[in-house]
């Protein structure tokens, strides 16, 4: 089974590689669900590390219905990520009625080509996940990252298994959300080929408290190794 680590910094990416993870999804600001990482972070990871790096293309936190200006930013970010040497793109868009935005997702996939394209956890907000699975498969999406429309992938396991059984060999269902050493084996036993985890721990604050400070986390080598030992 392949383990993808959601890495929110260079240190997280480095820890993922050192612990033996197979791939990272590079992003920033996990506290809001992740947004597109900076160009500097992306270049540092690609030029310094050897681990396969997929890049999250999400211009802001919040919902997945984007304005025309936000969508232009997403397209430019994909071009920049490809030029920087990333190995895959993680993105997606929805319509206001909680369905896949077919036209925009198709554009994102075309821009990402020939890199693999992961449709991210916007999938967990669609009103008809089985229909959405078929639509994304038809569009040529490589994989879908999902918690089974629950707060955690463990709680959403029933739907994830159902989707995995419906998925053709051309699209991968990748559980993600709350996966840790204590439950990772559940997904292997259920027949999934890949899982996604942040494997993170809080970073202790240094210096004086800041009025702007939010809890920082880093992907931890010990947690990553413990997950790998279970799969």
Question: What key attributes describe this structure?
Answer:
alpha/beta; 8 helices; globular
Describe this structure in words.
The chain has 231 residues and is of the alpha/beta class. It has a single domain, classed as Copper homeostasis (CutC) domain (TIM Barrel). It has helices at residues 10-19, 39-48, 68-84, 102-112, 129-139, 157-166, 184-189, 221-230, and strands spanning 2-7, 23-26, 52-56, 88-91, 117-119, 143-146, 172-175, 194-197, 200-202, 217-219. The strands form two sheets. An eight-stranded parallel β-sheet has the order 7-6-5-4-3-2-1-8. Strands 9-10 form a two-stranded antiparallel sheet. β6 (143-146), α6 and β7 (172-175) form a beta-alpha-beta unit. The mean pLDDT is 95.
Our count of domains comes out at: 1
Got a strand count? 10
Assign the structural class, choosing from mainly alpha, mainly beta, alpha/beta, alpha+beta, or little secondary structure.
alpha/beta
How far apart the termini lie comes to 6 Å
Q: What is the CATH class designation?
A: Alpha Beta
How many helices?
8
Rg, rounded, reads 17 Å
Shape annotation = globular
- Uncertain segments: none
């Amino acid at each position: 089974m392949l383990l993808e680590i959601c890495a929110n910094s260079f240190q997280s990416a480095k820890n993922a590689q050192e612990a033996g993870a197979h791939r990272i999804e590079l992003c920033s600001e996990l506290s809001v669900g992740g947004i597109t990482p900076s160009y500097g972070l992306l270049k540092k990871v690609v030029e310094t590390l050897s681990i396969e790096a997929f890049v999250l293309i999400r211009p802001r936190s919040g919902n997945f219905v984007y304005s025309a200006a936000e969508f232009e930013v997403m397209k430019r970010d994909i071009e920049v990520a490809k030029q920087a040497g990333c190995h895959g793109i993680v993105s997606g868009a929805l319509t206001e009625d909680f369905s896949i935005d077919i036209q925009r997702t198709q554009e994102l996939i075309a821009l990402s080509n020939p890199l693999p394209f992961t449709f991210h956890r916007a999938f967990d907000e669609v009103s008809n996940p089985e229909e959405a699975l078929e639509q994304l498969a038809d569009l040529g999406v490589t994989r879908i990252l999902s918690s089974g429309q629950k707060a955690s992938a463990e709680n959403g396991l029933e739907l994830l298994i159902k989707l995995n059984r419906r998925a053709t060999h051309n699209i991968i269902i990748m559980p993600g959300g709350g996966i840790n050493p204590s439950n990772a084996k559940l997904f292997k036993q259920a027949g999934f080929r890949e899982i996604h985890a942040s494997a993170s721990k809080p970073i202790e604050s240094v210096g004086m408290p800041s009025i702007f400070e939010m809890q920082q986390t880093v992907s931890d080598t010990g947690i990553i190794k413990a997950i790998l030992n279970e799969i």
